[in-house]
């Protein structure tokens, strides 16, 4: 499949072009986004809800300076791990970057694995700014995940359709929004001319890539990075610290698991996460799906 032709044709007619790269974790989104950026004078905006946090590089698989190959990247290292960062915050900042990139005559490229972040930009969600409600959150945290999701379906069926039932953090936030007296999130008219590419792999091959990457993360210092976050005073119960890699390494650091079992747990949890991502992205409309094995050969 000739990706170049798709992009060339799109850029001829698009007034406000936006290229989007979708796919499960370890599918090759970063490499493809950089290749496209180099060929079409683009700049990359991360749509990863964990890469916004500083000091969390290995666990969130942030692109390195070397891997960037000189391509500017945005929405990485935006806030401290103990700072609140909402979907509304992401949309506001990402749209500002998109506007700046387009103003300079370059092509903005969204790349990342957080489906809700991507959809909020592509579908132009109108998200009210509602401050956190600690009392409500404390009550909601007492509920089982399925109970939370059922509550959200009753309060805001549209939001429930957009959010994965197992994503407690997003479900709680959506309930918080629904219970506020502000206008509820609505899909607006699309703001950009979007071209979406998705990377799909044979499931066994993707899982092999995930297993290998998890082992490399530990080799590259994931344990030390986790310990460093604790040493900096970040509470393991923070939402940021629930990111894949850190809970598993904490079990090793706290002598709850030997390293080989912690690695196995990380690989298992990452595979489960990838499966949920794939389920989400398969529901995305108008995606041009690319074979990951063929891309890898290129």
Helices and strands in order:
Layout: H1 3-13, E1 17-23, H2 29-40, E2 42-46, H3 65-68, E3 73-74, H4 87-103, E4 107-111, H5 115-122, E5 125-126, H6 134-140, H7 145-155, H8 157-162, H9 168-179, E6 186-187, E7 193-200, H10 203-219, H11 222-231, H12 246-253, H13 259-281, E8 287-291, H14 292-297
Parallel strand pairs: 1-4, 1-7, 2-3, 2-4, 7-8
Antiparallel strand pairs: 5-6
Helix pairs in contact: 4-5, 7-9, 10-13, 11-12, 12-13
Textual characterization of the structure:
It is globular, with a radius of gyration of 19 Å. The strands form two sheets. A six-stranded parallel sheet has the order 3-2-4-1-7-8, sandwiched between helices. It has helices at 3-13, 29-40, 65-68, 87-103, 115-122, 134-140, 145-155, 157-162, 168-179, 203-219, 222-231, 246-253, 259-281, 292-297; strands at residues 17-23, 42-46, 73-74, 107-111, 125-126, 186-187, 193-200, 287-291. The mean pLDDT is 92. The protein is 51% helix and 12% strand. By secondary structure, the protein is an alpha/beta fold. The chain folds into three domains: 3-126 and 187-201 and 284-297, Rossmann fold (3-Layer(aba) Sandwich), CATH 3.40.50.300; 134-184; 203-276, Helix Hairpins. It contains 14 helices and eight strands. Helix 3 links the parallel strand 2 (42-46) and strand 3 (73-74).
